[in-house]
From TrEMBL:
Residues 59-139 form the Ribosome maturation factor RimM PRC barrel domain. One of its GO terms (molecular function) is UDP-N-acetylglucosamine diphosphorylase activity. InterPro entries: Nucleotide-diphossugar_trans (IPR029044), PRC_barrel-like_sf (IPR011033), PRC_RimM (IPR056792), RimM (IPR011961), RimM_N (IPR002676), RimM_N_sf (IPR036976), UDP-sugar_pyrophosphorylase (IPR039741). PANTHER family: 16S RRNA PROCESSING PROTEIN RIMM FAMILY, UDP- GLUCOSE PYROPHOSPHORYLASE. One of its GO terms (cellular component) is ribosome. GO terms for biological process: rRNA processing; UDP-N-acetylglucosamine biosynthetic process. This is Ribosome maturation factor RimM. SUPFAM superfamilies: Nucleotide-diphospho-sugar transferases (SSF53448), PRC-barrel domain (SSF50346). It comes from the Eukaryota. It comes from Solanum bulbocastanum. Residues 2-45 form the RimM N-terminal domain.
Length: 533
C-alpha cells in the first residue's frame, strides 16, 4: 500500500548516516511505530540537486564498465553497496572480454567488488550510461573461477601457483632449518606423493614467527591474566557496571539505562561499521546451551548448538541487522566444511553470504620438553608426514585477521570496529560494549559476566579497526603459556620410524589468551562493561 505523507521538517543525525524526521499528523510513539519498516519514496523532481561528483545509486546500476587504459568493456554495475567509508560497486564481469560490446544490462559472469572512489573510478558519464575504471592489478580476477578459463590459461595459472608455492616452501624450510628442525624433512624421502604433498602443505602453514615468539616466552615466567589487577589499572570513568537484568528480553526494550550508549552501538552495527569474529570451538560449545542433546554423532550435536546460537537474535545479533555485518567464523579445520554446509542450509542465518568468511583456527606445533637440552625444543611429528599441532588459543585470532589481507578488506568496506567473541556464552550481543567503546574513544573494550568467573575461554572484546591493524604488527605483545603434557609421537631411529609413547609429560603445548592483546594498549585506552548478577 502506498500512501502520501507530508514531511514537516528534518535534520541529519550528528555523527551518523541517518536522519531525524517529523511528519504531519504523526505526533505519538504509537503512530510512529506503525511506520517502522516502511520505505520512504520521493518523486524524481523533488530530489535534492547533487553537487559535482555525487550520484544517486539507481543511476549507477546498469551502467557499463570500461577499462580507461584500453577502452575494453569488462562488465556491468548490478548493485551499489554503502560500506560507510566509501561505496562499493558490484560489477558483473563479462566472461569473454573480446566479445562485441553488448547492450546495457546484458553482461554475464562472476561478480567483483569495485570501490567507488575517484582513484579507481575517475570518469562517470550519465548520458552514455558508462563509466571508466583504473582497477589495481588483480582486482577484476579475484572472483573468476579457474574452470571458466581456457585450458591453456588454467595450465598457466596452475604453473604460476606451483611456482609460488615452491617459493613459500623453500622459505619455510629455510626458517625451520635455522631453528634446527631438519628432522621434519625426513618424510620427503618416504611414502606416496600425496603424503609428501601433505607434509609440504604442513610446513608452509607453520606460523614460524608465532612459534619463535612462543619459544621465547617459555624462558619468561608466565603470569596468568588477572581480572582484579586489570580492573585496578583502568580509569574509573572507563568502566560501565550493569546488572544482568538489563540484558533480559523484557528489559532491553524498556530500560532507560544508558540508552544513548546502546543506541550508538546499534547505529554502528546497522550501518555496517562493525564486523563480528565468532570463535566456534566445538568441544566448548557442547553443554553451553539449554537445548536437549539427542543420541547423535558429536558433529551433529555441535551443529545444534551452533544453530541455537545463530537462531537467537537476542543472544547474538538482531536478524534485521545481519545483512550489513561482515561475519568471520573461526573454527577447527575439521569443522569448516560442515559449518559451511550448515550456513548454506539455513540461508546464512540472514547474514550476507558474500560477507561471511570461514577461517581455520591458528595452531602451533607441539615441541619436546627435554631436561638435558633445556633450550632446545624439537617439533614433534604425529606421523612421518604430519606435524603434531594444537590450537594456539584465542590470541591466534589476531594473526588470522592479518591473513588474506582481511583487515584491509574490512577497512575498505567501511568497518570501524571488530567484535571478537566466543560462541560459548549465554549473551554476546555487543551493542552496549560497542557504544561504550566508541563513546570513550577507546582502542579496546571488554564485556565480562562476573557469574562466569572471568573464564579466559569466555571472551567478548571489541577492537577499533586501527588498533587491530597495529596489533597484527605487535605479535611480541602476546603472552604464551607453555603447558607441559604427555604426547605420543614418531621419530626416526637408525633409518626406522619408531612410535614414542610417553609415561609422563614429555612436551610443551603453547596457549595464549586474547586478553594478552591488551598488553599492547595503555589502560587509559581500554574500557570495560562489567555485568553483575
Amino acid at each position: 500500500m502506498i500512501q502520501e505523507i507530508e514531511l514537516v521538517e528534518g535534520r541529519g543525525h550528528p555523527g551518523q548516516k541517518s536522519w531525524i524526521l517529523k511528519f504531519h499528523e504523526i505526533n505519538t510513539i504509537e503512530q510512529a511505530q506503525k511506520l517502522v519498516g516502511s520505505a520512504l519514496l520521493v518523486k524524481d523532481e523533488d530530489r535534492p540537486v547533487l553537487e559535482e561528483g555525487e550520484f544517486y545509486t539507481p543511476e549507477l546500476v546498469g551502467m557499463r564498465v570500461f577499462l580507461k587504459e584500453t577502452g575494453e568493456l569488462v562488465g556491468t554495475v548490478v548493485n551499489v553497496f554503502n560500506s560507510g567509508a566509501s561505496d562499493l560497486l558490484h560489477v558483473e564481469l563479462l566472461l569473454d572480454r573480446n566479445a562485441k560490446p553488448q547492450l546495457e544490462g546484458s553482461a554475464s559472469g562472476p561478480l567483483v567488488w569495485v570501490p567507488f572512489v575517484e582513484a579507481i573510478v575517475p570518469n562517470v558519464d550519465l548520458s552514455k550510461r558508462e563509466m571508466l575504471i583504473t582497477p589495481p592489478k588483480g582486482l577484476l580476477e579475484l572472483n573468476i573461477r579457474a574452470d571458466e578459463r581456457s585450458k591453456k590459461e588454467r595450465r598457466q595459472l596452475e604453473w604460476k601457483e606451483r611456482k609460488k608455492f615452491q617459493k613459500r616452501l623453500i622459505a619455510a624450510k629455510k626458517i625451520l632449518h635455522e631453528m634446527e628442525q631438519d628432522h621434519i624433512f625426513h618424510g620427503f624421502r618416504y611414502g606416496e606423493k600425496n603424503q609428501r604433498s601433505f607434509l609440504a602443505n604442513q610446513i608452509v602453514d607453520v606460523n614460524s614467527v608465532l612459534l619463535q615468539h612462543a619459544l621465547q616466552n617459555k624462558k619468561i615466567p608466565y603470569k596468568r591474566w588477572s581480572f582484579p589487577d586489570f580492573v585496578n589499572a583502568l580509569q574509573v570513568n572507563n568502566t560501565l557496571k550493569l546488572s544482568k537484568e538489563f540484558f533480559s528480553k523484557e528489559n532491553v526494550e524498556h530500560s532507560s539505562i544508558g540508552p544513548k550508549v546502546q543506541e550508538q552501538g546499534h547505529c554502528l552495527i546497522s550501518s555496517g561499521k562493525v564486523a563480528i569474529v565468532l570463535a566456534l570451538a566445538e568441544s566448548k560449545l557442547l553443554g553451553t546451551s539449554s537445548i536437549p542433546e539427542p543420541a547423535a554423532p558429536h558433529e551433529e550435536i555441535a551443529s545444534l548448538h551452533v544453530k541455537a546460537l545463530l537462531d537467537d537474535s537476542h543472544r547474538l545479533l538482531k536478524m534485521e541487522d545481519r545483512s550489513s555485518v561482515p561475519l568471520i567464523v573461526v573454527c577447527p579445520t575439521e569443522s569448516i566444511e560442515h559449518l559451511k554446509q550448515l550456513f548454506m542450509d539455513h540461508d546464512y542465518f540472514s547474514f550476507d553470504s558474500e560477507k561471511v568468511w570461514f577461517l581455520e583456527e591458528e595452531k602451533l606445533p607441539v615441541v619436546s620438553a627435554s631436561q638435558e637440552e633445556e633450550n632446545k625444543h624439537k617439533i614433534l611429528m604425529k606421523s612421518p608426514w604430519e606435524i603434531l599441532q594444537r590450537p594456539a588459543g584465542s590470541a591466534g585470532i589476531v594473526t588470522l585477521l592479518s591473513s588474506q589481507n582481511l583487515l584491509e578488506h574490512l577497512h575498505v568496506m567501511g568497518v570501524e570496529y571488530i567484535q571478537v567473541c566466543s560462541g560459548n556464552q549465554e549473551f554476546i550481543n555487543g551493542e552496549m560494549l560497542l557504544g561504550f567503546t566508541k563513546s570513550r574513544e577507546a582502542n579496546a573494550g571488554i564485556q565480562v559476566f562476573r557469574d562466569a568467573g572471568y573464564l579466559e575461554e569466555h571472551f567478548n572484546i571489541v577492537f577499533s579497526i586501527d588498533f587491530a591493524k597495529k596489533l597484527t604488527k605487535k605479535i611480541d605483545k602476546l603472552q604464551f603459556e607453555a603447558i607441559l603434557k604427555p604426547n605420543q609421537y614418531v621419530e626416526m631411529v637408525e633409518k626406522e620410524w619408531v612410535d614414542v609413547v610417553p609415561s609422563s609429560p614429555n612436551s610443551y603445548e603453547f596457549h595464549s589468551s586474547i586478553y594478552s592483546c591488551l598488553n599492547a594498549c595503555p589502560p587509559s585506552k581500554v574500557c570495560l562493561v562489567d555485568i553483575t548478577a
